Amino acid sequence: xRRSVAEVMFLFAAVLASAEQALPQARxxxxxxxxxxxxxxxxxxxxxxxxxxxxxxxxxxxSEKALARVSSAIAQRQAVCxxxxxxxxTYAISLFHDENSNGKLDTKLMGxxxxxxxxxxxxxxxxxxxxxxxxxxxxxxxxxxxxxxxSYL
Length: 153
Description:
The protein is α+β, with helices and mostly antiparallel strands. The protein has a single domain, classed as Sandwich (Immunoglobulin-like), CATH 2.60.40. The protein contains two helices and eight strands. Strands 2, 3, 5, 6 and 7 form a five-stranded antiparallel sheet that branches. The longest helix has 18 residues. It starts with a helix and ends with a strand.
């Protein structure tokens, strides 16, 4: 019995499809991501600069001691800072609205911020910046969604 090439190809495709269904599907691991939505911005001018810390060392003023830093464009008075490849642990995020895009937090006399600032957990400082412990959150892996509101002092 002779079969046409089309019949053989059809049978081959059918066998492959049934074998593929019988095999367990490999799961693609999701990257560990901390996604921070930034709200409360007064304008779309400039950028938002976010820093994520794994300890109180340097939090929130010394961004060179941060575990990771990202900047984000602003649209409709909102921004998103996303940190990927993050190991499970305890972290805190500080951020500011860099209105003039100079890459630093501009301050008034006595160190009071001229630009909007924010921290995870809505942490606020009393006569100074917020403490790491007030802004700290636990990350167990996967994807974590945070919302951080900017405050203008």
